[in-house]
Design brief:
By secondary structure, the chain is α+β, with helices and mostly antiparallel strands. The chain has a single domain (2-115), classed as Alpha-Beta Plaits, CATH 3.30.70. It has helices spanning 16-33, 35-38, 54-58, 78-86, 88-101, and strands spanning 2-8, 42-46, 69-75, 111-115. It is globular, with a radius of gyration of 16 Å.
Length: 127
């Protein structure tokens, strides 16, 4: 299984609410609509919570500011992953997604990479 981790910071001028609204209600559905073309096995959006331990965990003032969200895109195998970045129709969809990201993502402040999971403690609860 291959996965892209995308740590996202919102575009300047957007409130947290505007960012989340676009990412969850506009961008996410585009990914879902084209899941088969992109051969994505799973797509997960994670957003920070305000919690009474947030200040302690985030180490505000010590670490860089928190990301506004993390996207995780999974592919079952290398062939499906490569398809998402080489097939002409998949590339057309990738362009749609990239164009939409300009509406809410600060690309210079965000980071993404290809990864694989190493499960250290199996059996994590599902929401």
């Amino acid at each position: 299984m291959l996965k892209i981790i995308y740590c996202i910071r919102r575009r300047q001028g957007l409130s947290r609410e505007q960012f989340l609204s676009h990412w969850l209600d506009v961008h996410g559905p585009i990914v879902l609509q084209h899941q088969k073309t992109l051969r994505i096995a799973r797509y997960q959006q994670t957003t920070p919570l305000e919690h009474d331990f947030s200040v302690r965990v985030e180490r505000r003032g010590v670490l860089q500011p928190a990301y506004d969200g993390v996207a995780e895109l999974y592919w079952t195998n290398d062939a499906d992953f490569r398809h998402a970045f080489t097939d002409q129709e998949a590339l057309r969809i990738q362009k749609i997604l990239a164009d939409d990201e300009r509406n809410f993502v600060d690309h210079a402040g965000s980071a993404r990479w290809i990864s694989r999971e190493i499960v250290v403690i199996p059996g994590a609860p599902t929401p």
